[in-house]
Design goal:
Number of helices: 0
Shape: globular
Largest sheet: 7 strands, mixed
Distance between the termini: 41 Å
Low-confidence stretches: none
Number of strands: 11
Radius of gyration: 14 Å
Order of helices and strands: EEEEEEEEEEE
Structural class: mainly beta
Amino acid sequence: QVQLVESGGGLVQAGGSLRLSCAASGSIFIINDMDWYRQAPGKQREMVASITTQAITNYADFVKGRFTITRDNAKKTVYLQMNSLKPEDTAVYYCKTRMFIRTWRDYWGQGTQVTVSS
């Protein structure tokens, strides 16, 4: 009923930029609060950025000043602009939202790989 699809990942050199997209489909016609998470191999998943329905944003300290989260409600899409990328940003990046369909629950995308080389 709900699907989130991330795109835009890839291989980039340190200092480069990427823009990730997360498109919602299925039962999602008006996107709620949206979050970006990331997980590196062998490490815990961590929150990167979030954006509310009113476009209020929040960022993890390690990406402040480098990453920007935005949303396009008409396209039901959230974006993560990543600048000044560092090797430690290498991870699988996931989009997440919460929806009420019979109950409140989390919905996750499949993830998109971001690899930053030195």
